[in-house]
Amino acid sequence: MLKRFISMLILSFILLCGCGPAQTIKPGDLVLAIGGESAEGYDPTMGWGRYGHPLFHSTLLKLDENLNTINDLAVSHTVSNGGLVWTVRIRDNVLFSNGDPLTADDVAYTYNTAAQSGGKADLAMLKEAAAVGPNRIRFTLKYPYIGFIGKLRTLGIVPANIHRTGRNYARNPVGSGPYKFVSWTEGQQLIVEANPYYYGMKPSIKRMIFLFMDEDTSFAAAKAGRVHVVALPPILGKQKIPGMTVHPVRSVDNRGIMFPCVPDTGKKTPEGYSIGNNVTSDIAIRKAINYTVDRRLLAATVLEGFGEPAWGIVDNLPWDEPSIRIKDNDPATARKILKDGGWVDTDGDGIVEKNGTRAEFTLLYYSNDSVRQNLSLACADMGKKIGIKINVAGKSSDEILRLNHSCAVLYGYGSHSPEEMYNLFHGKFAGIEQLNAGFYRNPTVDRYLDKAMSSSTVEESNRYWKLAQWDGKTGMSVRGDAAWAWLVNLTHVYFISDTLDVGASMIEPHGHGWPITANIEKWRFTK
Amino acid sequence: MISRQTASIRKSAAFLGEKTFRLAMVMCLVCAMSFVLVQNSPVDPVRAYIGADANQIGTEQRTLIAERWGLDRPPAERFIRWAGQIVRGNLGTSMIFNEPVASVIGKRFIVSLGLMAAAWVLSGILGFALGIISGVWHRRAVSKIIDLYCFVLASAPVFWIAIILLVFFSVMLQWTPVSGSTPPGIPAGEITLAQRLHHMLLPCASLSVISIAGVALHTKKKTVEIMQSDYILYARARGESAFGIVLRHVLRNSLLPAISLHFSSLNEIFGGSVLVEQVFGYPGLGKATVDAGIRGDVPLLLGITIFTTIFIFFGNAAADYLYTVIDPRMRHMEKINEY
After folding, report:
1. A242 to A102, A352, B66: CA distances (angstroms)
2. CB within 8 Å: B54 and A433
3. Domain interval for residue A499
């Protein structure tokens, strides 16, 4: 009796499964498992859309596939008054997905709200945005800041009259982007549909479902044929998935070693953390490591081929100085640099010394990140070859924040905005958490960085960004002070369904997944 | 007659009054302790909130975020303000979800509730049944098999069992969904009950594993004791069948320890749901707890702590009350004491 009951139960569940997930996705729907859920909702004034595409919203400017800045909502923009006043003219007749018109007032409202909201959209440089006509907006900055152009590219415009009511906009976003919001099951999926009022190219894919799952589950879903686009870690890049092809995308998602650049004189930060390291503060040590590591080998082994050598924090972006590339995997040159710098192995233990100090330091990595762990271990091996002992240790991010002014750390960065380079290498950010953790300070570099930031045009600023890396005499890069040893840029691994054409993907920033949606309105099914 | 009724009402009122007082005390302690713990946690909420954007968010913006959350004020002032709001029933705003804590908990709890309730009832019934069978047929093969099964379950970590089930049923057989509590591609309003159950199947199975073994083993011990008692011997002498003995003597007597144990295992189900929801990507309260902890969302974490405390407190109070319903001796204890 009981047996029959149980088998009935099992049978009925199997029947239920039969009419399960397979039919819930209609033909023509695109299913993506690329992460990117914003737990706090989709409100640009709180920081939604900092990566890739704000999807529901459109921005004033945007990047094209070659990372040139082009107009989106804007038709023109001018910078005047020494970089303090930015004036933007926007398109006429743009409608939000609910049919309301988008005006200069909405733009001004969006920027002013974002500046005061205390979210992740950093508009600290903005004094005020004001509508000066139906389609002209004037932005007044507190100080000249070319990084503001990055904000024009990423901050999605919200409808003031809806957003102002505060009725949970983040969970029911309305915007003027290519897609409109349909539903969001938190922690699970986001459904969007093409926005009928979109002013740009009409997307060929009408309905998309973003599934939010971890990497293992995404991989299982891809293997089961349930998704069209999936983001996977490099370690799974060599896998075969039926009906899908691997789609590697280049990135500035870099990994490198940050060195404390000042000696340990017993000084401490206001929080009580030690500052300085007597080994890595010697430029010969930093340069020698830069010359001896084999970046190509790191990319081929640790990243399974899904990566390429990195030379700076902005590789292959318009503000990258190409001459900073050196010939690495060169222990002979590295040994010569050490010898010229006074580092010699006097006691025959295989490790060089200088004035009684052994060339030994600690390299930290985030203990939950196996790629960083393997990179650290490989670098320690490569350092040993030239007589530098690198002790590798995995720590939590909070522990690293206490140690990063006195120990080398394997960090990862990479952004579509040069602001990051400014925050990472400018002397005025020395010792502020992980901004300029190593207390790197070079007055010439600081001057270039300031000039770049206060430029009025992107072209002018790019010239100074490049000079800050290497001006022929000095710079932050390996040719100059070698403040960091950049190692690799990751290649982001996606698997794309053979029925889908995603066009040419742009070089992606740090953060794997959502950035691939940058050109999503051009995607189409081929079968 | 009337006096007996008022006496029973008075007794219930005393029961309620005592429980309420205890709850208030527990709440005060839990609030203070969790605030102190969170205060001393190494996780910096602003840094945790910024996360991967650390280098694109300047110092001015960090200050602005800290001000929005009131982190620029001293801890004692923060605690008093927070406690004042709690008393008024305002749990605050979650930092990571950017919506009121009460609504986050509400939404997440609905998802978890079905899962936990199903797992709890299932494990109670299964555990009790296995315990009785194993106790009545003590030293037989069936008892040994059940014991072995219980020991394996008791020593296997729940997330491990969850992964095994996931690999077998979802990936190899593809009978069950891989993750989530709803099927992909359907707006929330159009999901059927069958689909929800289908998604709940594996998480529920893994979660129920936690308390099956405990209930079964305790019930078994009690049952073995009962089976060796004089009244069972007498019943056998009267010629009662094994079935009759179980139904009339064993069930009632062994129910008490099972119930007290199972109600007190409510907190284990809560704890287990954290792990299981993580494995199955099931967006319930457990997953929200993990997120809140890792990302330093103090209001949400404290809100969940308070909520869980109340929930488990009522679970235990319900067990206390059920004793008196099931066991007449408990009901009359006071009367006996009076003599």
Report:
1. 45, 53, 49
2. yes
3. 1-37+186-249+492-527
